[in-house]
C-alpha cells in the first residue's frame, strides 16, 4: 500500500500523515510507503514505513507525472488555492484548482492501474438560491471561483471514476474548527481563532453575533473521515462519487459555551465582538442547513459535541500542551 | 450588433442564422454582421447584413482568438462533440467540450468588453439517483462524459459571468425533434427518425415501446428560445446563469398519433418496432420528468403540441416541401 498525499504540508495533510503513520495500514493493507507532496517540502512524521517528501506544483504536468506511477495505490488530493486567494487571483485558482486537478487525473488515466483518489471538495460548492436543507441531490451553485473550481473537480472525479481511470471519491468538507496555527485571510478565519486564541491566552475578535450559525467539523474527525473515505467501496457510492462530509451546525454562542465548559470561564473573556460588515457579507451567504445523508449511511461521522472539538484542540494542538 | 455563432454549421446553428437574418435585429439593435464558424465553413443564409463564415476548431486557442474581438457583441456557443462521440473518444470530448469552451471564455476574459454568451448545455447533465421531478435546484449528476463536460461548461459560464468577463447564459436543451437530416449514431436518433423518415416515405425502426416517455422540443421553438435567451436581462437570472430550456414530455404513441393527425394514417405504417436492448439500456436512464420553472418565468416556451412539431418539420424541412 503506497500512499501519496498531495497537499501533505497543510493542516489536514499533516494530521492525516501522522494518523496513517500511527495506523500503519489502509484498506486492510500494511502501508509500505508514503509520499507527502506540497509546494514546499512538507515535514515528515515518524512512521514504521518509509516517508518521503516532495515539492511539487500540480499545475506542472511533468512534476505531477514524477509523483504518480503504477505503484501508487491511494492518492489524497488535498492541495488547493483557497477561497479568498482564488477570488483575488483568478489565474492562480484556475491553474491549481482546475488545471492542477486535471493534471493529476490525466496522469492517472495514462496508467494501467486505477488508483483510489480521495479529493477534498468544499461546502463552498453550494450557494445562491437553493432550498434548505442542502440535500445530496442539491445543485452545487457556487458563488465564488474557488467553489466553481471545486465543483468542476467533483465532476471530473466522477467521470474519471465512471470510466475506470481512477477509483475516486470527493468529499465536501465543512469549515474545520478548531483549526491550529495562525489566523489567515479566509473569511472563516475567526471561526477557529475565537476558540484557539483565547485558549492560547490571546485576544480574538468575533465579527458576527452570538447567534450566527455555521457548519463545522474538527480536524481530528475530518482525518478519520478521510481515512474511511479511502476505504469505502466505490460501488457503494452509487451514481455519484461526491458527497458532503458530515459536520454539525453550531452558533458562536454554543461554541463559546463549549469552550467555557471545557476550559473554564477565563478564555471567553478574551473575545471582543466587533462587527465587520465585509466579513458578514460573505459568511451570511454560506449554507449551514445540510443533510449529509449519503455520507452518514456510508459510515462517515460528525463530531458528537463542540466540547469534543475544544478538547481535541487542547490535546492535539495547544502550544506547549 | 455583431453576432458570432460557433457551431454555425449544425442543424440548430443554421436555423438560428436564418432566423436572425429574417429578424435583422437582436437585443433591440440592428444586426450589422454575423459570422458562422464551424469545423468546415458553414453555408451562409441570405441576410440584409454581411454574413461571413469561418472554419475554426475551438480546441485551438489561436483560432478562437481570431474569431472574437472587442466588436463581438453576442456569441452563440453551440459547437460540441456529441454524446456518443464524446463517450467513444474521451480525448476529443475533453478537447472540444472542455478545453474548447475554456478557450472561448479565456478569449472573452482577455477583452475589455463582456460579450453576451449563449451556451447550449444539455439535459444530459442530469442522471443517476436524483428525485423526480428535476427542478432548477437539482444536482447535475451526469452519467456520460458529454454530460460531465456540459456541466463543467455551465459552471465556467456562471463563474465567468459572476466575475464580469462575459454576460453568459446556459440553456440545457431537450432532445430536438423533429430533427431534419439523416439518422446518426446518437442513441436519441430514432426520436426524430420515426417521424422524419415516414413523412419522407421511408421506413423507420423504433427500438422502444409505444409508452416510452421522453422530453422534446422542436428546432423552431429551440431557435426562438435561443434568441430570447440572448435578450433576457442577466440580472433577472439570479444566482445561476444555467437553466433547463422548456420542453414537453411525449410518449412514442402520442408522437405517432400527432403525425397521423397531421399527415394521415399512411406514415405510421412505415414504422417497424424492433426492440434494441443496447438503445433501451441508454435511453431508459434519461430523465423526462422536469420542471423548468425558471426558464418559463423568463419567457422561454415549450411547444404547444407535438402536432406543431410535425407541422414545423413539414413546413421547414421536408425535402421537396
TrEMBL record, chains A, B:
Ranges in coiled-coil conformation: none
SUPFAM superfamilies registered for this protein in UniProt: NAD(P)-binding Rossmann-fold domains (SSF51735)
Presence of the UniProt keyword NADP in the record: yes
Keywords: Carbohydrate metabolism, NADP
Domain NAD-dependent epimerase/dehydratase stretches: 3-203
Gene3D superfamilies assigned: NAD(P)-binding Rossmann-like Domain (3.40.50.720), UDP-galactose 4-epimerase, domain 1 (3.90.25.10)
The organism's place on the tree of life at top rank: Bacteria
GO molecular function, one term: oxidoreductase activity
Name assigned to this protein: Nucleoside-diphosphate-sugar epimerase
Originating species: Primorskyibacter sedentarius
Amino acid at each position: 500500500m503506497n500512499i501519496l498525499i498531495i497537499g501533505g504540508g497543510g493542516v489536514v495533510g499533516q494530521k492525516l500523515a501522522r494518523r496513517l503513520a500511527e495506523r500503519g495500514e489502509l484498506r486492510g493493507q500494511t502501508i509500505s510507503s508514503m509520499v507527502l507532496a506540497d509546494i514546499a517540502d512538507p515535514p515528515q512524521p515518524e512512521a514504521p514505513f518509509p516517508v518521503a517528501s516532495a515539492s511539487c506544483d500540480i499545475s506542472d504536468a511533468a512534476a505531477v507525472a514524477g509523483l504518480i506511477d503504477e505503484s501508487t495505490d491511494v492518492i489524497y488530493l488535498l492541495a488547493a488555492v483557497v477561497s479568498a486567494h482564488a477570488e483575488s487571483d483568478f489565474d492562480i485558482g484556475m491553474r491549481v484548482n482546475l488545471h492542477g486537478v486535471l493534471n493529476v487525473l490525466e496522469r492517472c488515466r495514462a496508467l494501467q492501474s486505477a488508483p483510489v483518489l480521495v479529493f477534498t471538495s468544499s461546502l463552498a460548492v453550494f450557494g445562491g438560491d437553493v432550498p434548505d436543507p442542502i440535500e445530496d441531490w442539491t445543485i452545487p451553485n457556487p458563488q465564488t471561483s474557488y467553489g466553481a473550481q471545486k465543483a468542476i473537480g467533483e465532476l471530473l472525479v466522477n467521470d474519471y471514476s465512471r470510466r475506470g481511470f481512477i477509483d475516486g471519491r470527493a468529499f465536501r468538507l465543512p469549515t474545520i474548527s478548531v483549526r491550529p496555527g495562525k489566523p489567515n485571510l479566509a473569511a472563516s478565519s475567526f471561526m477557529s481563532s475565537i476558540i484557539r486564541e483565547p485558549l492560547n491566552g490571546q485576544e480574538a475578535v468575533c465579527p458576527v453575533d452570538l447567534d450566527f450559525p455555521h457548519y463545522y467539523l474538527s480536524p481530528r474527525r475530518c482525518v478519520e473521515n478521510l481515512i474511511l473515505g479511502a476505504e469505502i467501496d466505490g460501488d457503494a457510492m452509487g451514481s455519484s462519487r461526491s458527497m458532503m462530509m458530515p459536520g454539525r451546525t453550531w452558533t458562536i454562542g454554543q461554541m463559546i459555551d463549549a469552550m467555557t465548559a471545557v476550559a473554564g470561564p477565563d478564555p471567553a473573556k478574551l473575545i471582543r465582538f466587533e462587527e465587520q460588515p465585509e466579513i458578514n457579507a460573505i459568511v451570511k451567504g454560506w449554507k449551514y442547513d445540510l443533510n449529509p445523508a449519503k455520507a452518514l449511511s456510508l459510515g462517515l461521522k460528525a463530531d458528537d459535541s463542540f466540547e469534543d472539538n475544544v478538547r481535541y484542540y487542547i490535546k492535539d494542538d495547544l502550544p506547549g500542551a
